Amino acid sequence: MTHFTSDTAPTTASAWKDGHKGTRETGRDLLTDVSLPAAVIQEAPLAHNLAWMQAFAERHGAKLAPHGKTTMTPALFRRQLEAGAWGITLATLPQCRAAFAEGATRLLLANQLIGRANMAIAVALIRAGAELYVTVDGHDNVAELGEVFDEAGLTLPVLIEVGVAGGRCGCRDDGQIAALARDIAARPGLTLAGLEGYEGVVHGDDPAARIRAYGERLVENLHRLADEGLFGVASPIVTASGSAWYDLIAETFRDGGLEGRFTPVLRPGCYVVHDHGLYREAQRGVLARRPDLHEGLRPALTVYAQVQSLPEPGLAIVALGKRDIGGDRLPEPLVRYREGGRVEAPLSVAGWDVTRQMDQHTFVALPEDAKDVKVGDVIAFGASHPCLTFDKWRLIHLVDDGLTVIDTWETYF
Amino acid sequence: MTHFTSDTAPTTASAWKDGHKGTRETGRDLLTDVSLPAAVIQEAPLAHNLAWMQAFAERHGAKLAPHGKTTMTPALFRRQLEAGAWGITLATLPQCRAAFAEGATRLLLANQLIGRANMAIAVALIRAGAELYVTVDGHDNVAELGEVFDEAGLTLPVLIEVGVAGGRCGCRDDGQIAALARDIAARPGLTLAGLEGYEGVVHGDDPAARIRAYGERLVENLHRLADEGLFGVASPIVTASGSAWYDLIAETFRDGGLEGRFTPVLRPGCYVVHDHGLYREAQRGVLARRPDLHEGLRPALTVYAQVQSLPEPGLAIVALGKRDIGGDRLPEPLVRYREGGRVEAPLSVAGWDVTRQMDQHTFVALPEDAKDVKVGDVIAFGASHPCLTFDKWRLIHLVDDGLTVIDTWETYF
């Protein structure tokens, strides 16, 4: 009845070191053989999402540079590049370094490059062959970058970040953008390669109209700087879009007269495994605005965990904590299985109500009629949002529809 | 002026792979040479805390098995064991595996052992020489564990978890405890080794009185089961205590008539680096109850990050996100330095107000008179609580008072 397989049971000290939260479990049955909790991606919806978003970008004449910070899973970067992505977007230099190490060579840092140690990583990446773009939004940073890259004998392509009042980073008005562009164009060590924005920080009444206007502002500034001859590259980049409003950005790029002159780049991240919360709702918005899209993205990421204790009537404690799953919302129980059971025989979680999470535990209020629950029952939980689930794991299992582990992927947070 | 050192700049693909969020930075100046953001432990308060809690336990006649889930940093486990700790407490079998791999051999799983794959890890650990204790709180789990360990030819020492109504795991009443103890004592494959509890789930009016009563209940049950001859070990264990109410538990153990017959074990985790939020407040409570303790614990863990953008008056965006620091509370700016500056010349963060965090960014509202802020300024942030800061990092820097990196430690989440 027990099944102690050799690779969950290393007997030398060094073999234990690879453990972390999981081990490589390829070929195993998730409901029988895998140490839980475990983060799990289902292949079918993943493949659907990869193809769907690539086709979406292409239909709008845009390139795709998926935001890699979501997953920091180079195996997924490879899948995204194989599906046709133009590059990978990242948030920090160590993230760029990890992506480059795994073969992603066109890297878009959708953030300012600050700190001499991070600049040193950028220099080394470019020397090693990376095509690295970074954003800038102020003269001091431009001056420092110009000095560092000129001294290194390199030319760093930079994108001016276009921000909004009350938003995050980025130039607040178009006069700042033009002045910064002239500053960059005049400096050795830098070349102006385009404009960058993030519509996720645009807020207010009628967000769709505001986001369209923001996309149009990006496009207008692009044309204006091109007319002034400030770009130092053949096909300047304009890039924006997270995973909630990408349709509106794609439309403003499609309608912006960019073809043949500019390189529009979309960079959603969460789309790749989608969501059971915030992004599922955002996707309903996309599909309401765009009935031509028919079906949208499919949730592909879940965390499997087991009932740990049934200490009093109506209460299950599940061995799943804040350290295992994203906490924008409490996790959502999707389906339950008996441990060692068959995927064709799911058990109900109807009426299961997650009330609280601690670092390593989840509290579930059970309905009156939940008499069949057993310690060890395996529950698949949906999360929101995926970025904060991925970063809880060093190993993530890819499974087929039968919940057999096809592959185990490393993350690089 | 620039300083591109060889080890931030690997030039072969494989060398990039070790990157994650940081690199080993021993000997470097945190304000000059280290890729930020970075998690940082200061040696002086760390050493103070290690000695302080060990002395506290010994003064109360208790052993210390610090909760390792807080840090999952085996280098800290070694420091704790060197300071006199009896063992290391952990929350999951993969955590036990990681601690054992790094040389911790006495492991207290302060949780139920569920799932056949996790039981397989436990079997392998015991076969490899670990002294592993786990908790139980129900007959089904006891039956399964008995079967698995009997079949493996091993005897698993188990601690009955003592819970409270409306709490987390654990037997709700003393009749259940006695029945479960008899069940365990009758089974091959298991031996009853003691009682376990966690006072952090005891809530209500006058928490100190309730926690004392809870500690006394542990002690009473311990004597009762011993009188009935249900323990299978020479000196049965009684263990409780997190990092907020450990003084009350220690006092009930000290006053419980345990000497020479039982092994009282305290298992706080957060004490080792203490806190700038919840646990700082909890510690004030300890010191108010126990004036004889004079000085208490000192915060030792901070996250250093840089101003990334100053996009509009009164707003700084710092390159520090939810993915870098615990989020029970917004992080607290403690001190600021100019990048490349000297630790003796700190700059003010008076009136700096963290208003919001995103995955990779922190929004700081600056006071009117904060005219000297520059992009690149380095800010040390305090966090609450430490568990959810440690798990954001794979590498943590140990620094001296001059902010030179003494060592870089791996975490094993």
What is the rounded Rg of chain A?
A: 24 Å
Q: Please report the number of helical segments of chain A.
A: 11
Number of domains of chain A: 2
Tell how many strands the DSSP assignment of chain A holds.
Answer: 17
Mean pLDDT of chain A: 93
Helix and strand layout, with pairings?
Two copies of one chain form a homodimer.
Chain A: H1 13-16, E1 38-42, H2 43-59, E2 63-64, H3 74-82, E3 88-90, H4 93-101, E4 106-112, H5 116-127, E5 131-136, H6 139-151, E6 156-162, H7 174-185, E7 190-197, H8 207-227, E8 237-240, H9 246-254, E9 263-266, H10 278-289, E10 301-312, E11 315-318, E12 332-337, E13 353-357, E14 362-365, E15 378-382, H11 387-390, E16 395-399, E17 405-410
Parallel strand pairs in A: 1-16, 2-9, 3-4, 4-5, 5-6, 6-7, 7-8, 8-9
Antiparallel strand pairs in A: 1-10, 10-11, 10-15, 11-14, 12-15, 13-14, 16-17
Helix pairs in contact in A: 4-5, 8-9
Protein name (chains A, B): Amino acid deaminase
Family (chains A, B): Belongs to the DSD1 family.
Keywords (chains A, B): Lyase
